[in-house]
Amino acid sequence: MTTSAKLASVVLLSALALLPGKTPAAAGQAAAYHIAPLKGITLTVGSKRAVGYYTTAGNACHLTLMLADPYVGSEKTVSEPVRVNLTVREGTSATVDALEGSLDFRCAAGATAMTIQPVQRTAYNAVAK
């Protein structure tokens, strides 16, 4: 590789390093997921796993979600899975809470898409004086 080619590659990589990248929405907050009707998604909510999809009817998102403990080899799970069915009208949202976090589901206009935002909850503890 010639000296000019090496210099050009160093300049190019330096310029790319200075470009702004994608930044997180907020500290401790996970990225939002965008899904289309009948497309499945698997998420982690604290120590639980969530698997779900949604269908559309009457300008609403009809969500089906299963919450369960993670499967680890042949180990028997501690609790039974829970099935949650929600109807989220277009332009509105609904929240499903687990022990260690929540999932916020927002239905887009015309029920064309759904946004899922994992929310990490932290208990508030006021210091007594």
Q: Which structural traits does this protein have?
A:
12% helix; mainly beta; four-stranded antiparallel β-sheet; 42% strand; single chain
Give a structural overview.
Mean pLDDT is 77; it is low at 5-27. It is built from 1 helix and 8 strands; from the N terminus they run αββββββββ. The strands form 2 sheets. Strands 1-8-7-6 form a 4-stranded antiparallel sheet, with no helix packed on it. Strands 2-3-4-5 form a 4-stranded antiparallel sheet, with no helix packed on it. The radius of gyration is 21 Å and the shape is globular. The longest helix is centred in the first third of the chain and has 16 residues, at 3-18. A hairpin with a 2-residue loop joins β3 (48-57) and β4 (60-68). The chain has one domain (29-119). It has one helix at 3-18, and strands at 33-35, 41-45, 48-57, 60-68, 82-89, 93-98, 101-107, 114-119.
Shape descriptor reads globular
Assembly annotation: single chain
Strand content: 35-45%
Number of helices: 1
Q: What is the C-alpha radius of gyration, as a whole number of Å?
A: 21 Å
Distance linking N and C termini: 68 Å
Give the overall average pLDDT.
Answer: 77
Task: Point out poorly predicted stretches.
Answer: 5-27
> How many DSSP E strands?
8
Strand order of the largest sheet: 1-8-7-6
Overall domain count: 1
Helix-strand blueprint:
Elements lengths: L2 H16 L14 E3 L5 E5 L2 E10 L2 E9 L13 E8 L3 E6 L2 E7 L6 E6 L10
Antiparallel strand pairs: 1-8, 2-3, 3-4, 4-5, 6-7, 7-8
